[in-house]
Amino acid sequence: MDSNYSKNKIEKNKFEKSLHLIAASSMVVFIGVALSKIFTYIYRIIIGRTFGPEVYGLFSLATMLLIFVVAFFSFGLPEGLVRFIPFYRGKNQKSEINFIIKKTFSILISVSLIGCILLFLLANFISLEIFHNSNLIPFLRIAALTIPFFILANLYLAILRAYEFIGIYSFILNFLQNFIKVGSLLFFIIIGIKTNIVMYSYFLGILAMFIASYFACDKYVKIVISKNLNINRKKEITNGLFSYSWPLTLLGIASFALYWIDSFTIGYFKTVADVGLYNAAIPLAALLMIAPDLIIQLFFPIVTKEYSKKNFKLIEQLSKQVTKWIFIMNLPLTLIMLLFPGAIINLVFGQNFLAAEQALRLLAFGSLFGSLSIVPSHLISMMGKSRLMLVNILLMLGLNLILNIILVPKYGLNGAAFSTMIIFVLLSLTYIIQNYYYLSFIPIRRKMLSIALVSIIPLLVVIVLKRLITLNFLTVSLLGFLFILLYAILILAFGCLDKNDFLIIKKFRDKITRKN
Q: Which CB contacts under 8 angstroms, 24+ apart, belong to 326-331?
């Protein structure tokens, strides 16, 4: 009896500690992501307004190709480290950690140089034969020189994340590199240098990220060199790493291609203007992916470590709680986008883009389901089933393409948005079913239904008020604030939060009180 009580108490303490770590890291990541978004928009606005649409287009093409090459030549190995380092840490296998880091570094330093040389040599061909623009050549050559630093920076950042140093990880990834990009671009403009300075500033940002992540790893991550592993064990670790990581390369490219397929089919069947309208709705709907990104950075290393210890009950509790947090944060934002898509688009992009308001509604609804698929997809990844994840994405991409071919000619960008909404819903359901099959639980709390029902009341209030007043920036802002206020009050009043939620709120309140 006493032993069971002690065991339950230990599990409870570990669960509460893990929840607190995830919540605390999400606040740090939130600040980093907010700064990242601000600096990214400033950076792109400066480029567009100072150098015009052609340079902005060349920069966009060069960075798109750069990210593609980096993703391809990384082989998914940095993402592999985020799984295997916590897994070996959970088993206290220090020799395996030491070997897997050294092995990954030696591979990435070689292939990054190959990627650099290939893009540099192919810059002429890509610029002249594919895009028919010689001005793209210097952009691609500078992008090529960026590749080794970009890939190695991702390696060191992955190690920091695997060791749960989320604060320094977020600072380097979200703030430092973007600050350097903006700062160096402004500096070049002020001193009068104008030739290729956009790509030089981008290069300096990546270089700063590489240097900072290297020194952060050197300072915070202490790799203990222990006994050498035999050849068979080294082969086993290497094979396991590659078996898990290589599908992630295609997975990353395939995930990136989801919206690309929409834009391609719209451009093929409709006009470039329609593509522009659709790409006004995409970044707004993508705001719903911020909430899971805040939480998942530390969630994945924690559950992977616990998976290696076979603490399935803890994984189940954490997964359900984290999914509930994502739902609480994203539901009001989704409903606001459903109510005021035109006002939001007008505020951000202007009246010329109002034709995208129905597409924004569809994408927002789909993105809510997409955000709820993040936790179950990471649980599949936790188990090492990256090939299954790749199959899921490839099937959804194929279905998305088929639906686009059917719907876009008749319904335009709304057809593409409807297709993507269906894909997000199906993908979320697929991951949930697979979670139940492999882990025997669904990462959803019953109280999420109560939260959804509670949200109907402020939704009806705002719908009635919307019909009674003239909509402008001020009234939409006030209605949005009223909705969130009523939503928060009703969640508290109807007991939608549990003891774990109040535990986290109390710890943050105590922390703020102590600081004051």
A: 326/291, 326/292, 326/295, 326/371, 326/372, 326/374, 326/375, 327/372, 327/448, 327/451, 328/451, 328/491, 328/496, 329/291, 330/288, 330/291, 330/368, 330/371, 331/368, 331/451, 331/452, 331/455, 331/487
Whether the predicted pLDDT of 263 surpasses 80: no
CB 476 within 8 A of CB 340: yes
Query: 3-state SS of 189-232?
Result: HHHCCCCCHHHHHHHHHHHHHHHHHHHHHHHHCCCCCCCCCCHH
What residue type is assigned to position 32 of the chain?
G
Distance between CA 159 and CA 84 in Å, rounded? Answer: 10
Q: Is the pLDDT of residue 289 over 70?
A: yes
Residue pair 75/245 in contact by the 8 Å Cβ criterion:
yes
449 Cβ contact partners less than 8 Å away, ≥ 6 residues apart: none
Angle, CA 471 vertex, CA 467 and CA 476 arms, to 5°: 105
* Cβ count near 21 (within 10 Å): 16
Residue 23 has pLDDT above 80, yes or no: no
Q: What global pTM score does this model have?
A: 0.71
Q: What angle do CA 119, 61, 387 make, to 5 degrees?
A: 70
Six-digit token pair at 47?
Answer: 């480029």
Cβ count near 221 (within 10 Å):
16
pLDDT at 499 over 90: no
From the list 321, 29, 11, the residue with the least C-alpha distance to 164 is 29
Q: Could you report how far apart the first and last alpha carbons of the chain are, in Å?
A: 44
The position carrying tokens 């991409």 is: 397
DSSP state of 229: P
Residue 391: which of 451, 434, 452, 440 has the closest Cα? 434
Residue range 333-376, pLDDT digits in tens: 999 999 889 888 887 777 877 888 999 999 999 999 999 998 99
135 DSSP assignment: T
* 197-220 vs 177-191: helix crossing angle, rounded to 10: 140
What does the alpha-carbon distance between residue 158 and residue 100 come to, in Å, rounded to a whole number? 13
CB 346 within 8 Å of CB 399: no
Query: What is residue 444's three-state secondary structure?
Result: coil
